Amino acid sequence: QVQLVESGGDVVQPGRSLRLSCAASGFTFSNYVMHWVRQAPGKGLEWVAVMPYDGSNKYYADSVKGRFAVSRDNSKNTLFLQMNSLRTEDTAVYYCARERIDYEFWTGFKYWGQGTLVTVSS
Amino acid sequence: QSVLTQPPSVSGAPGQRVTISCTGSSSNIGADYDVHWYQQLPGTAPKLLIYGFTNRPSGVPDRFSGSKSATSASLAITGLQAEDEADYYCQSYDSSLSTYVFGSGTKVTVL
């Protein structure tokens, strides 16, 4: 069965960096577009970044552009989110999510991980 | 604030029908970008409920249905059940922002 497991969440000070990972299993990881979505405590969902299946044309939310970088290692079935220059407003649960259909964008996020909590605080 | 506007809350008695609106603009829903709906139960990850405005993934009860009109989309829940108490989010793509966007979210309360 499809599984997405995020890790790497921690408590960090403003201005520091953190790298999140999302380990995928149960499907051909290299065929799917992947996303990061976050949810601040008590708030709604915010799309963060998209990682195409072939590593091309990554896109980011304006709130993280220039500070966050998404990448993937298809040989290890893992998605990453490098977060630099962290701000208090980046505090959130970070989810990785998989598109419903392989090789396609915008088909709906069919599978989600359980999320990993990032707390940015001094 | 989100470019997709949802009512903060809706409520209904068991067995009733409730609808949740998702109002966008000509750069997202009005531009024919698909809308998807997600259900998020307390303390859990979101679950895809409806994709492409009206389609249900396998396993989603037919009590849930979606529709579209012009620059808005709607999610309807018929035969409301206690287990439907959750937050619901619409999602689309916005060509002006060049990003995926979520609606502001709607909390459904079963009275």
Descriptive labels:
heterodimer; A: 122 residues; mainly beta; 7-stranded mixed sheet; 4-stranded antiparallel sheet; 48% strand; globular; B: 111 residues; 6-stranded mixed sheet; 3-stranded antiparallel sheet; 9 strands
Helical region count of chain B?
0
Portion in beta strands of chain A: over 45%
Helix content of chain A: under 10%
Mean pLDDT level of chain B: 95
Rg on CA atoms of chain B, Å: 13 Å
Give the tally of β-strands of chain B: 9
Our count of helices of chain A gives 0
Large-scale geometry of chain B: globular
Number of strands of chain A: 11
Q: Spans of chain B with pLDDT under 50 lasting ≥5 residues? A: none
Q: Give the amount of beta strand of chain B, in percent.
A: 35-45%
What is this entry, summarized?
Chain A is mainly beta. Chain A is about 0% helix and about 50% strand. The N and C termini of chain A lie far apart (about 40 Å).
Please explain how this structure is put together:
The complex is a heterodimer of chains A (122) and B (111). Chain A has 122 residues and is mostly beta strands. Chain A has no helices and 11 strands. In chain A, strand 5 and strand 6 (59-60) form a beta hairpin. The mean pLDDT of chain A is 96. Helix content of chain B is 0%, strand content 44%.
